[in-house]
Amino acid sequence: ILEHSDSIDRKLLDAVTANDLAKVNALIQKGARVNACDGFGFSILVNALAATNNEMINFLVTNGATMRTSS
Fold it and tell me: What is the distance between the alpha carbons of residues 24 and 62, in angstroms, rounded to a whole number?
């Protein structure tokens, strides 16, 4: 769960919701957890699905994102 607003996982979530694919790529390369979840328990992938950005969804899945959240 994203506990700190300045965490790399929080930055990944923000980049996904902003549809910033370049930033998402950079954050994943730096170690952001592609299967982290937001404060409501929704995974990064679910947030991308909500934004209906197919390119982002494909990119996340290619990088290991699943519908399950990490613990």
Answer: 13
